[in-house]
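Chapter review: from sequence to fold.
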Amino acid sequence: MKDPAHPNRVSLATVPLRHSIQGERFESDRRSLSRAAGGRALGCSHMRVPPGKSAWPRHFHLANEEAVYVLSGSGTARVGDDVLPLRPGDYLALPAGAGHAHRIDNDGAEPLEYLIFSTMNDPDVMVYPDSNKLAVFAGSPPGGDASARHFETVLDLAAQREYWDGE
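The token string follows.
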């Protein structure tokens, strides 16, 4: 809910919470702060990930940069070939590109809470190196308003085709 006196300010407690579970490994609660406050070029979400879970599969963006600021709990960030511990007060920059493929895991006994920031460039392509997939978003980037998206698809990179195939 927006503050009537300051329409671009929201309180964490008033932003709707979205709970997501995908299989055994992925679970999170997310509050899209930037969208609720009317942000356009910079996204920010508050994430809460239960012990033993991750919010998303390992991925990297081709158009958008992300950053994580840890509020509470503990976890690990797999970035490229490195595994980094995450603790409250840590800030992690995740530039676009394959060298920064990342996944954040909660390896502690308490929920892991962090803010995730992102540029909101459109279109964006996300690559999932562990599952050999590619996702394309146009009209609204990942984390943006899905109702504004006019194209979103996930492709299996093992099914690659040459440019002129089928023409």
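Two observations follow directly from the output. Residues 33-37 form the longest helix (5 residues). Residues 58 and 130 are 7 Å apart (CA to CA).
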